[in-house]
Structures are given as C-alpha cells and as structure tokens.
Amino acid sequence: MLDTRRLFQIFAQWLLTTRKVTGYRLAVAAAMLVALASTGCMANLKAASSGKIGCSPSSIEIEDDKEDWGSRTWTATCKGQRYFCSATATGRSSADISCTPEG
User: Fold this and answer.
1) Which terminus of the chain is more solvent-facing, meaning fewer CB atoms within 10 Å of its CB: N or C?
2) How far apart are CA 74 and CA 82, in angstroms?
3) Ordered strands of the 61-68 beta sheet
4) Per-residue model confidence as pLDDT tens digits over 48-96
5) Is the per-residue pLDDT at 1 higher than 60?
6) Which residues lie below 8 Å from residue 6, measured CB to CB, with a gap of 6+?
7) Gap between the Cα atoms of 53 and 73, Å rounded
8) Is residue 41 over pLDDT 50?
9) ∠ CA(32), CA(36), CA(37), 5° rounding?
10) Do β-strands 71-78 and 61-68 pair in parallel, antiparallel, or remain unpaired?
11) Between 4-17 and 23-40, two packed helices, what is the crossing angle to 10 degrees?
C-alpha cells in the first residue's frame, strides 16, 4: 500500500506534467485530493485504535486495512481480542473513529 506522501508526490508530478486539463483529468485530480485529505489524519492506525480499545499502540496488530471514499476500515488485535474499527472523514483533518469487539 502506498503511503500518503508517495501518493501526493505522484499526484504533484502528474499535475506538473499535464499540459491540458480536461474534464476527465480534473475529475481524477479531485478524486486524488479527496483520498489524500481523508487518509492523511489516519496514517497511524495503531494510535487511532489505541484510544478506542484501551491498549497501547505497541501492543496492537493491524490487519485488513481497506480505504474507500472518505472512509477506512481495519481489524485491530490486542491481547488476543479482535476489534473491527472504522473511520469516517468529518473534515479536512478529522475523522470519527469507532472500534467494536468481535463477538
């Protein structure tokens, strides 16, 4: 999975090398900006999960990380307990995060 900085570099390079901005390219640029804005604050899923499940980030394992337009889901495991977590972007640099124990 590409990290946010690498995606931004790819996006910036694409914009710099584009000579003609068409409707399609503008739509792609807008989609990339939305994706970057919605994931930037969620770069560290262990830290985001920590406050919701009561474990230190160093004792959390992250699996099944999936991103979609303005939302993200993942599975956090701590001390043998699995939690299903999600984040929904609520602004440019904030998100609502929730984690529910399995079972």
Assistant:
1) C
2) 10
3) 61-68, 71-78, 81-89, 95-101
4) 999 999 999 999 999 999 988 889 999 999 999 999 999 998 887 778 9
5) no
6) none
7) 15
8) no
9) 120
10) antiparallel
11) 160
CA-to-CA distance for 82 and 72, rounded, in angstroms? 17
**H or E element in which residue 82 lies:** strand 81-89
Q: Which residues contact 47 (CB under 8 A, 6 or more apart)?
A: 57
CA dist 103 and 81 (Å) reads: 10
Query: Using alpha carbons only, how large is the chain's radius of gyration in Å?
Result: 16
**Residue showing tokens 């699996």:** 63
Contact 66, 73 (CB under 8 A): yes
Q: Model's pTM, two decimal places?
A: 0.57
Instruction: List the domain boundaries for the chain.
Output: 4-40, 45-101
